[in-house]
Design a protein that fits this description.
By secondary structure, the protein is mainly α. It has 3 domains: 57 residues, no CATH class; 38 residues; 199 residues, no CATH class. The protein contains 12 helices and 2 strands, in the order ααααααββαααααα. It has a two-stranded antiparallel ribbon. A hairpin with a 3-residue loop joins β1 and β2. The radius of gyration is 22 Å and the shape is globular.
């Protein structure tokens, strides 16, 4: 129990005071991610219907908005005035390499979670039996990268979440431990998965171009199709979370782009994405539009539609 049923006294009052002190100290030092984690730990020790829970939830939401408003860290250093172009290019290349290695380390870190590793292995086993191990492995890795895109954004925003969990036949998911009420924040988290998924698909496509191996072509197309499917703006799919932050006119822009992408690529999954998007365009939407979410959605639709239908030569 979190509170006494007789007097309503909080069972973890001492720990809550300590967490509040730690959170305030982190926030005063500008360490917003650490402050958010401390407050979210406090929420676990409070009755959900208590006034303290509501106050701290609002505090967490405010910190999340402040983190979302911060520009993403860049890996490219500023060039010194008068510095030769070749020296600037080498510096940018090295910085990009370091940035990529950091992302690789982050991806490997996710595999240390037992639930992720075991469920991923079970998922791999099912699809190995159906399609062979090369395609099954590529599918598992691409879905894993997609889910880690969500995790990366959640970490940046200071939001706690569970490790990716694979479900054979359905895909994978990341369980949030905090309710997201801000539409723009929800869109950032939702669209981060397809953005990383697009990166995985493009990487497979580049390997295909280099090696000419059709397995990589299949992985690229399948990855693009899965991420395009996730853009259907319905239920808990990523597209629904992205649409949540769009004004009515922005939704119509997305509908137009989906229709254009279908005319160019003839990718039939776009008919479903477009039909649901058209339905959502007539529903009530946010008053304050999120231009970043709209641009991200449009680019994802165009790029994934192309990648899922590009002609491969074996």
């Amino acid at each position: 129990m979190l509170s006494c049923p007789a007097c309503s006294a909080l069972v973890h009052a001492g720990r809550l005071k300590e967490l509040a002190r730690v959170a305030d100290a982190h926030e005063a030092a500008g360490q917003l991610v650490e402050a958010s984690h401390a407050w979210q730990e406090a929420l676990d020790l409070l009755p959900p219907n208590s006034q303290q829970y509501a106050v701290i939830s609002a505090r967490v939401g405010d910190i999340t908005k402040r983190l979302a408003a911060q520009p993403a860290a860049t890996a490219l250093p500023a060039a010194a005035p008068g510095e030769p172009w070749w020296r600037r290019g080498w510096g940018a290349l090295i910085a990009l390499l370091v940035f990529s290695l950091g992302k690789l380390k982050f991806l490997l870190l996710g595999l240390t979670k037992l639930s992720t590793f075991v469920s991923m292995f079970a998922f791999f086993g099912v699809y190995w039996n159906l399609y062979g191990w090369p395609l099954a492995l590529g599918l598992v890795i691409s879905i894993y990268i997609h889910e880690m895109g969500h995790v990366a954004m959640l970490r940046r925003l200071g939001i706690r979440a569970g490790a990716p969990l694979f479900i054979p036949g359905l895909g994978a998911l990341v369980l949030l431990k905090t309710h997201i009420s801000d539409p723009s924040v929800d869109a950032k988290i939702g669209l981060a998965g397809p953005v990383w998924g697009l990166g995985a698909g493009l990487a497979a496509y580049v390997v295909y171009l280099v090696t000419g191996t059709m397995t990589w072509a299949a992985i690229a197309q399948l990855t693009a199709f899965i991420n395009l499917f996730n853009l259907i703006p319905i239920w808990q799919l990523d597209g629904s979370r992205g649409f949540h932050a769009l004004a009515v006119w922005q939704r119509w822009v997305v509908v137009a782009v989906i229709g254009t992408a279908y005319l160019v690529t003839s990718q039939k999954i776009l008919l479903i994405v477009g039909a649901v998007a058209l339905y959502r365009a007539f529903q009530r939407a946010v008053i304050k539009p999120d231009y970043g979410a709209m641009v991200t959605f449009v680019v994802l639709v165009a790029a994934l539609a192309w990648l899922s239908t590009v002609h491969y030569v074996g």
